[in-house]
Amino acid sequence: MRFLNLRLQNFRNIEFTELPLGGERHFLLGANGQGKSNLLEALGLATALRSFRTQTLTALPRKGHKEYALVYQLEHDHQGATHLEIHSGRSGRSVQVDGEKVTRLVEFIGRFPTVTLCSGDLMLLRGGPGERRRFMDLTLAVVNRGYYTALRDFHRGIAERNRLLKNGGSAAELSAFEAEIAPHASTIASYREAGMAELRAVLCRVYDQIAEAGEGPELDFRPNVDCRDPEVYRRLLQDSRPRDRMIGATQRGPHRDDFHLALQVGGAREYASDGQQRGLCVALRIAQASFYHQQLGVAPVLLADDVLGELDPVRRQGFWRACPAELQVIATGTELPVDLDEWRITSIANGQATTAATGPLV
Amino acid sequence: MTPAYDSLLQQLKRLPGLGYRSAERVAMHLLVEQPDAMADLLQAMRGARDAVRRCQNCGNMAESELCAICDDANRDVGTICVVEHVPDLIAIERSSAWKSQYHVLHGKLSPIHGVGPEQLNFQSLQHRIQSGEINELVLALSNDIEGQATCHYIQEELVQERLIKVSRIGFGLPSGGGVTYADSVTLRSALEGRRIYE
Ligand SMILES: [Zn+2]
Predict the structure, then answer these.
(1) b vs e for A257-280, b when ≥16 Cβ sit within 10 Å of the residue's Cβ?
(2) pLDDT of A360
(3) Cα separation, B45 vs B54, whole angstroms
(4) How far away, in angstroms, is B66 Cα from ligand 1 center?
(5) Domain match, A78 and A162 both
(6) Does residue A64 have a known ligand-binding role?
(7) Are residues A146 and A261 in the same domain?
(8) For a designed S-S bond to B169, which of A120, A151, A209, B190 qualifies (C-beta 3.0 to 4.6 A apart)?
(9) Do A216 and A343 have their domain in common?
(10) By its UniProt entry, which NCBIfam families does this protein fall under (chain A) (predicted)?
(11) Is A33 annotated to bind ligand?
(12) CB distance A163–B112 less than 8 Å?
């Protein structure tokens, strides 16, 4: 897939601007706070209506406005030239693909895959399990609708069960929800198990091209409980009722899963250098992109928010070795990139995109 | 505009499906454009309010103790399609895929929304089950966690060990979707392809 053009209205600090794309390598150049990350954020919304910077999407419209509009032209591996519109306003978000309204998020997720690299990715190593679960859930939901619906129904079921636990719900009601939660937990467990194993294989291949000799990544799925067998998890929920009632929440299950991410030269959190950690995060993002490509048959677009400049020269070269040549890359930075002739440059100032003379655009 | 107009507008806005603009259009229509229609409308509303009640057997809309469906001697009383709401029943009737009786629960189990077994029309369903007349229950509830849990509850708490065939059609509906918005073809194939509950 390749973005050809993006028009934005009342999005973040942007009143209206047009960003011509279409090349293989685009560099958005600008000082901090000028809006270049907002442009990447808008491109990233095309994947799952999720922002890489915030979980609350209410912050997206421009100050003093309640609605924003994003209009994308893109070239899709399967659908060819495609027109995508995302509107958000008082009545919620609406999405149109080639003039046809998309009524359910499940039909939209993963149709237009992108992968965003940003400095916040270090939280996958340094942050809590919640950060890693979000990564895992998005990665698997993009490639599999069954995962997305199982996850949605599971979380909904847990919320209903938690309410019963808090309000002293009857055993009969708890049984009814537990029996229906368990199969979803089992579906999630098998997708995570298989998906993370697949991702680990890809990550090892990618990391080999980025790293110095003697390093290797570790990526291990760490389930909170083994719930591949729904009956086992159903019984665990049933047996945990007294404890869960005291706390007013479901203590164990896939909503507490985690994965371990580290380098073989010791646990990444303790021993890996800052550069090694950044390298691992970049490798994980490229692995995610390759995973999408392999599972969906659609080449995702790589969106690199200010990270390539932070890599040391060795790892930056490693990035380009590992990055599949067929992927469109759109990067941002405050300084012109070192490998200048590779890029088409667009300057971003005060929420306006201006194509620089060095970057002739189609 | 005027206090009476404003209060009418406020009431109309509370109705489902009416935003501010459509409420305004309706109010203008009734007060200014077609004031004569108001009397008929008021009469129809009062008449409906006084006449329409719940069928004591199945929970459908009725004007006497039993609704037209329960009162229909040609309908099989042994086979019952359980739905959440009256519009679901109407959608299934429209698909003409069902020729027997119904039971309307008026909701589904959802602790988050404060809906427990006491809030649902389970009591008369229990009576019908206990009467021994029923040999098949088809659960046409939404294909979401609450609909599924409600199916489970009916099986475990109401049917229990009785020799009643219980099946679900939820699997045939779009995931997360309900009966009312499914088209006739989907409903028909969902009803025909119903699965025995285990
Ligand atoms: Zn009736």
Answers:
(1) bbbebbbeeeebeeebeeebbbbb
(2) 44
(3) 17
(4) 5
(5) no
(6) no
(7) yes
(8) B190
(9) no
(10) recf
(11) yes
(12) yes
Domains identified in chain A, total number: 2
What pTM did the predictor assign? Answer: 0.88
A37 is in an annotated binding site: yes
Rounded CA gap, B104 and B61, in Å?
10
Among residues A257, A19, A284, A266, the alpha carbon closest in space to that of A128 is found at A257
φ, ψ for residue B46 (rounded to 5)?
-65, -45
Whether residue A256 sits in one domain with residue A316 = no
CA distances from A13 to A21, A64, A232 (A): 20, 11, 51
The total number of residues written for chain A in this structure: 362
Chain A residues whose beta carbon lies within 8 Å of the beta carbon of residue B116 = 169-170, 173
How far away, in angstroms, is B128 Cα from ligand 1 center?
12
pLDDT in tens, A32-56: 889 999 999 999 999 998 888 777 7
Residue A339 lies in domain:
1-113+299-362
Look at chain B and count its residues. 198
> What is the nearest CA distance from A136 to chain B, expressed in angstroms?
22
Question: For B3-51, which CATH class?
Answer: mainly alpha
Q: Which of A264, A297, A330 is the last residue of a domain?
A: A297
Which residues neighbour A107 within 8 Å (Cβ) at sequence distance 6 or greater? Answer: none
**Residue A247, token pair as written in the block:** 């706390």
Determine the pLDDT at residue A362.
39
Correct CATH for B74-196 of 3.40.1360.10, 3.40.190.290, 2.40.110.10, 3.40.800.20: 3.40.1360.10
Residues B117-171 pLDDT 10s: 999 999 999 999 999 999 999 999 998 999 999 999 999 999 999 999 999 886 6
Give start and end residues of each alpha helix (H) in chain B.
Answer: 3-13, 20-28, 35-51, 86-95, 122-130, 145-153, 184-192
Q: Tell me the two tokens of residue B8.
A: 């009418």
The residue of B145, B153, B160 whose CB has the most chain A CBs within 10 angstroms, and thus the best one to mutate to test that interface, is B145
Check if the beta carbon of residue B102 is closer than 8 Å to that of residue B80: yes
Contact A180 B112 (CB under 8 A): no
Least Cα separation, residue B151 to chain A (angstroms): 8
Whether residues A160 and B152 touch (CB distance < 8 A) is answered with: no
| Nearest partner of B152 among A181, A103, A242, judged by Cα | A181
A173 contacts B111? CB cut-off 8 A: yes
Both A310 and A186 in one domain: the answer is: no
Provide φ and ψ at A81, rounded to 5°. Answer: -60, 125
Report chain A (362 residues): mean pLDDT per 10 consecutive residues. 96 93 92 92 93 76 90 96 91 89 90 95 93 96 94 96 97 97 97 97 90 81 96 98 97 96 67 83 95 96 90 85 91 85 88 69 42
Does residue A30 have a known ligand-binding role?
Answer: yes
CATH of the domain at A74: 3.40.50.300
**Residues with CB in 5 Å of ion ligand 1:** B 55, 57-58, 60, 67, 70
From the list A167, A179, A184, the residue facing B111 with the nearest CB is A167
Break chain B into its structural domains and give their ranges: 3-51, 74-196
Contact A176 B111 (CB under 8 A): no
